Amino acid sequence: MHMSRIDLNLFTVFDAIYREGGITAASKRLHLSQPAVSHALARLRELLQDPLFERQGNEMIPTPRARALASTIARSLGSLERMLQGATEFDPQTAQRCFVIAMRESHELWLLPALNAELSPAQPGIQFACVRNERRDLEDDLRAGELDLALDIALPLPAEIRRVRVQTTPVVVLARRGHPALQGSLDLETYLAQEHVLVTGRRRGFGYEDAVLERLGRSRRIRVRCQLHRAASELVRRSDLLVTMPRDQALAVNDAPENQLFPFPIEVAPFESYLYWHANVEEDPGHRWFRGLVAGALRAADHDVSGVS
Q1: CA distance 306 to 309
Q2: pTM of the entire structure?
Q3: Beta-carbon contacts of residue 39 (< 8 Å; ≥ 6 apart)
Q4: Which of 54, 101, 106, 119 is 20 to 30 A from 218 in CA distance terms?
Q5: What confidence category does residue 256 fall into, taking pLDDT thresholds of 50, 70 and 90?
Q6: Regarding beta strands 149-153 and 126-131, do their DSSP bridges make them parallel or antiparallel, or are they unpaired?
Q7: How far from the centroid of its chain's Cα atoms is residue 71's Cα?
Q8: How many helices (H) and strands (E) does the chain have?
């Protein structure tokens, strides 16, 4: 099959259907009519000799062949788009571009307002989207252009994934004011005698603080596991439970004056956060501009961002 005989727009349609899960949503993404998208899909099915997507209710479910092709098509389209974007200067006042950054809910609370404040009213075509991302997919999503940036903890990623440390924050313990066991200070024995909330998105396993305690031959009693720091803060406000978290997250979610912060009762390394992007966008003018925008937002939120841009 010779490339000169293939309409590359068909792969743009494939990518949109795969991402959106349906023809209607794909047509909106591409600003095409539904019949046009359906016709393109029919041509691609004939070309590849595979149904590619099968309807189940309101969804178009990819076939095994489609799933095998999806990441390659996404990477190829992303590379072409970045090549075209890099071929011209980037003017944020006239550009039409949506930047995607992956981060946790706890980061959204303080970073999103600062990031939005960095945008100028004279840049109406610039959008940004914050999404949740699975760490196992981070490398592929950055390479394929699914993500422009990611804000996360230190992760074992290859050198092609660029990174810079943007945040260092100490570990603190949150407790309600008037907690009967806490009288102005918190030592290790008192900490271990209490019941705790563990904030984690994982179904099993323990937290950073538990690993620190384990190295000392100690452990704590976890009464509740939850996913959000804000929920943990509310649990603490209404009980005698304690929760351990990075200080910046505690300050972001703890809007209850009934709660108080204590230093973690033993010396422990601070939490670190990193900003990640792929080497293939290192010199892209638009991406460099967006990295600078994020750097400004982090500075506005009083975080160390040396080296981001």
Answers
A1: 8
A2: 0.66
A3: none
A4: 106
A5: low
A6: unpaired
A7: 19
A8: 11, 12
Query: What CATH number does the domain located at 3-86 have?
Result: 1.10.10.10
Report how far residue 170's alpha carbon sits from residue 298's, in angstroms, rounded to the nearest whole number. Answer: 17
How much of the chain exceeds pLDDT 90, in percent?
39
Does residue 220 contact residue 213 with C-beta atoms inside 8 Å? yes
Q: State whether CATH 1.20.1250.20 applies to domain 97-168+272-300.
A: no
Higher pLDDT, 159 or 183: 159
Radius of gyration, CA atoms only, the chain: 24
Nearest to 180 by CA among 170, 190, 188, 168: 190
Burial class of residue 300 (count of CB atoms within 10 Å of its CB; 0-12, 13-18, 19+): middle
Query: What is the helix (H) or strand (E) element at residue 13, kind and residue range?
Result: helix 9-20
| Residue spans per domain, the chain | 3-86, 97-168+272-300, 171-269
| CATH architecture for residues 171-269 | 3-Layer(aba) Sandwich (3.40)
